[in-house]
Structures are given as structure tokens and as C-alpha cells.
Amino acid sequence: MFPWFRNPTAVILPTEDVKLFKPAPMVASFSARGPGGLTESILKPDLMAPGVSILAAAMPSTDKADVPDGNKASAFAIKSGTSMACPHVAGAAAFVKSAHPGWSPSMIRSALMTTATTRNNLGQPVAINTGAVATGHDMGAGEISPLRALSPGLVFDTTAKDYLNFLCYYGYKAKLVRMVSGDAGFACPRGAPSPDLIATGFNYPSISVPRLAAGKTVTVSRTAINVGPSNATYTATVEAPAGLSLNVLPERLVFSRRWTTAAYEVSFASVGASKGYTYGAVTWSDGAHSVRTPFAVNVV
Q1: Which part of the chain is the Peptidase S8/S53 domain (predicted)?
Q2: How confident is the model at residue 2, as a pLDDT?
């Protein structure tokens, strides 16, 4: 036996606050990944938020071995996990709600998504824990940026009708949907059930196309609400990978007043894209606001 095994020693150094850690943010290994299990016609996850080494409230330990003599058990601990990210998002949503009490939950979600951060503090694209560039199925729209979410410019309001239609698209009968909603006059949209209709007509602040075959075109519609100044004109720019053709119509959205709406369509076509999921974004800008909607398209 080596002599130093008989009297082992250890040194515990004081903790230090590591400021301006780089690169950050980064998608943790345990972060939830897409595609969604229920349907691939809605891009998941929506967002990401800080969830690594978070100082959080915790149940005090009852194990005497965890508590130094003469001290009380701590009511706080350093925790990591999606359970740490969720309170950050809830707090950000409450922060936006406090500034805009009339906004619906889906409008708040939209504001958080379209203003999310997709680059780290080195100016590079956000990466996953292995160093590879994060995709929409790794980080959703990006990491929350609560201050930017206070003034998103445009929002996408996913209404109760959108969710009822989703049930129809997914395969539920209109009679059952009426029982759930209490709306005796509700009727399922023509063409339901169809997962493709979820992708094309569900007014969500992101886009997911689960199947894009060669020689085919998939057209997705969205409706935006102007929550910024009156007399605003937004112009579209596209981030698209090689082999994927995108067409946005109209290329400009004109809002004469606040709270007015404008609809547009995004058409996707494969022109030699590799099979599998490919990612990008459509961004609307009026010069003061940048409204980014990510997309994921599965080329088959």
C-alpha cells in the first residue's frame, strides 16, 4: 500500500462567482429535445432558459452528515435541470404580463419566442454541449431575452379555435370536441383529420413541416398582430439552408394602426436538399423590431 493512502487529506476552496463565462448560453446535455412526441407539425421545444447550476430553494436536508456541526440545514442548493429552467420562463412571462396585462398567454409566449437569443456572448451561433451548432430541435426559438420581449413589435396569437382545430386535425371527432369545448356550433375544418393541416394552419410563432417530398410545395399561413407603433411596415428576410427554396408572400406587412392584423404565407420546396430535418428562420423587421420565427422542415 502506498503510504499516502493511510492518511488521506483534501482541500476545500472557497466558492467563487464566475462572471462573464464564455461561451454562453449553451444547450445543456439534459435539455429537452425535439421533435415533439405528440406531433411533429409543431416545432418543439419552444424556448430554452438558464437551468445549469442555479441557486434555488430546496428542502433542508435531514441527514446530519450533510450539515456541519453547529449549523442549520440550508434552505438553498445548487440545482441543474429543466425544473430550474421552467421558473425562469414563468418569471419572464409574468414580467411581460406585468407590462402588458391585456395580452393573452399565447401572445406572451410569442413575444418570448420571437425575441429569443440565437447567438452566444462570443457572437457565434448558440451551440449544444458537444460544440455543434444548436438546431431548432435543440433550442427552439433560442434563449429567453425578457427585456426584448417587452417590445416584440408583432405577436402571433394562437386562439382557442386553433387548439380545437388541432384536436380535429389530430383525429378527434367534432362531437367530442364540442363536448370538450362547450361550443355546440363547433365544426371541424374541411380536410380533418390531417397532420399536414396542423403545420399549415396552426397560428404558432414557429413553423414545422413534418413531410416535404421532392417536387412538392408546402405552404404555411400565419397571422401577425401589430403591438408596436402605428404606420409600421415590416419586411421579410429568410435564413434558408442550401437546397431549400422559400417564398414569402407578401414580402411586406403594412400596419396602419396598433392592434391591426396582417396575414402572410411561406412556401417551402426542395431543390436538392438532403433528406432529413433542415432548419432556418423567417424574420420580419421594421428597422426597430426583429420578429424571428424559426422553422424545421423534414425533407423525405
Answers
A1: 23-122
A2: 60
Q: Rounded distance, CA 152 to CA 290, Å? A: 7
Question: Who contacts 75 (Cβ-Cβ below 8 Å, separation ≥6)?
Answer: 57, 58, 60
Residue with cell 409600421: 232
As a whole number, the mean pLDDT across the chain is 93
CB within 8 A of 46, min separation 6: which ones? 109, 112, 113, 140, 141, 206
* 3-state SS, residue 126: coil
Contacts of residue 43, defined as CB under 8 A and 6 or more positions apart, other chains included, come to 34, 36, 136, 137, 140, 204, 206, 207, 208, 294, 295, 296
Question: Which residues of the chain are modeled with pLDDT < 50?
Answer: none
C-alpha cell at 290: 426583429
Cα 166 from Cα 74, distance rounded (Å): 46
Query: How many whole angstroms separate alpha carbon 153 and alpha carbon 287?
Result: 10
Among positive and negative, which fits the CA dihedral 143, 208, 110, 114? positive
Backbone φ/ψ region at 125: left (φ over 0), alpha (ψ -120 to 50), beta: beta
- Superfamily of domain covering 16-149: Peptidase S8/S53 domain (3.40.50.200)
Which cell is 283 given? 424574420
Cβ neighbours of residue 135 closer than 8 Å, sequence gap 6 or more = 277, 279, 296
Give the span between the Cα atoms of 93 and 169, in whole angstroms. 29
SS3 content of the chain, % helix, strand, coil (to 5): 25, 30, 50
**CATH class of domain segment(s) 154-299:** mainly beta
What is the torsion angle, in degrees rounded to the nearest 10, for the CA atoms of residue 287, residue 235, residue 166 and residue 136? -70
Domain range summary for the chain, segments of one domain joined by +: 16-149, 154-299
